[in-house]
Amino acid sequence: MTQTANPDRRRFFRQLLDGANPNAPQRAAWHRVPEVGAGDGDVLWSGWAGDGEVFVVGDEAMVLHFDGQTDAHGRLWKPMATPGNLPLHDIWGLSRDSLFAVGWMGCILHFDGARWTQQRGGVIDDESQAFTPCAENTPLFAIDGNANGQAWAVGDDGMILHYDGDAWQREKSPTYINLRAVACTPNGSVYAAGGEGTVLHRPPGGGWEALDCPLGSGFQTLLVVDDDTLLLGGGRYFIDQGGFRGELVSYAGGRFEAVEVDTPMPRLRSLRPYKDGVLIVGDRGYLFYLRDYLTGARFATRKPRLYQLESNCHHDLMDIVALSTGEALVVGDFGTIMTAAPDFIDALAPAVSAEARKPRWEAMDSPTDRQLWNLWETPQGVCYACGEAGTVLRLAGNGAQWEQLPAPTELNLHCVWDAGRGGLYAAGQFGRIFRFDGHDWQLHFDLHLDVTILSMWGTRPDSIFAVGDEGLVLHFDGLGWKRLPSGTASALYHLWGMDDEHLLAVGDFGLVLRYNGRDWTDFAAGTENFLYGVWGDALDNIYTVGLSGTLAHFNGQRWNLLPIRVRDDLLSISGSAAAGVYAVGTHGCALRLEGGQWQSEPTGTELGLRSVIATQSGTAYAVGDQGTILRRR
User: Fold this and answer.
1) Which of 197, 358, 397, 398 is the most buried if burial means most Cβ atoms within 10 Å?
2) Taking the chain, what is the end-to-end CA distance rounded to the nearest angstrom?
3) Is 409 buried (19+), middle (13-18) or exposed (0-12) by CB count in 10 A?
4) Mind listing the pLDDT tens digit for each residue in 326-378?
5) Which residues is 483 bridged to in the sheet?
């Protein structure tokens, strides 16, 4: 017999199945994220996540930043430098290059991707050196914005501030009651909520108006379900209970109604969408999951099912930080940061798709078992590789077979370069550079020092640069090689440029040197990890890679460290319009930039990959240990 599909029936059977699933949202245990750099006495009030990074704000102007990289002290959650010491209660932004944090004494901080600056609040009287009792110092507790970059912040005494994309302005408020929540809807409306059942509405392009809520809840949080539907949470103090009792209130069709649940709740602090339901946090470590509320259960006649979750925590929980993977973080008192995800890094970065797990790289026959250090493609599309014991390889014209050229030396060769019109150059140990004219190798330059040349780059046969150990920088002008002052004694591992006046060299302890045609100057990338490779296709689109999965991007204004899943050392990076952008490293690691995200790709080897080249034809090649040569089509 065939029955008509029934949503309640499907939901019932899914609940039976989920009952045996320990990772179902109503059953998964929450646990603290390790290595959080906050003290036991610190309150973490809120957080923001995006592009694989997390910013958490708290007391004493604390901002903790997680991007997967450690600082000089080995901390994954790094405290950021901020002006002042006022508590920060909430944070919002469209991207990590423009974040706003609001807090005590009307404080508003802005992060531009490089540093935090104070925009408003915290006014101090010159004579008393105390905070001035003025409207600008009214404490702020919540902020939210829309896709157009406009934002609203609310706080005590009905304070409402509006950011129009340029400046903050106070808006007329219909209440003097303390406001604790604000949220924007997709259609341009804005809602705010606070004490004594206060709920305000600002229609698109209009002013603020108070909604008639018959319930006296002290609202701490509100969730926009759709343009005209809200779920509000908070609580009221009851003398007979000696504390707060949590309350949920729905607003739909112009009506407020209490959401009746069987589970007692403490005061509620935050509501966020979570896996087809609503995640709820409150005082004393309470975590709840309101199942199916966002998928229609709120319209059912029966009570919604509220699950209390295992938190293993007794501290007040203040806010929920949604992650792009569907997971979430919860922050709170005593430096608490929690998640239900088994692995926090996996929860932070998008999961690798099944398509991305398919083998894309294939091994090619190699004429050597020597370690290969470097790859280069000429403007004519000819690829070369070099490595140990003078090994030099060339890819035959059909792209199917590598052939070995005569060895110019028994010394190790770390780099090869050919402009296509001036012969092939190879360099390496003892500062020696060799030139191949198509028939024979000749010694072109000898530094007469035990210094290894590690990378070469040039624009034409009479303008070639080389870098290496001990801060070595050389330049060939068509007549001879000259050593240039670099200002460092650290090793420089790789060199890349756009032209003779725009070059970058990377090296030890996060060193990046920039050349402007005259001088080499420091160009800090914001990391102290060794950097082994650098590549870009424009002056505002440059990547560098290095130790322990370090990957940073320069957008024309600043370097940003990017979170990725791997912890292998990344040794080389290359890209082309036809092939895409790739990075390779130890243990056969390979990454591809796809849709703005770095995805790991299986290579079929555990051997180290020392160099990668993305060719003009659309094929990528990687070389490494034991003569390994891989091809990706």
Assistant:
1) 197
2) 52
3) middle
4) 899 999 999 899 999 887 777 776 555 555 556 689 999 999 999 999 999 99
5) 474
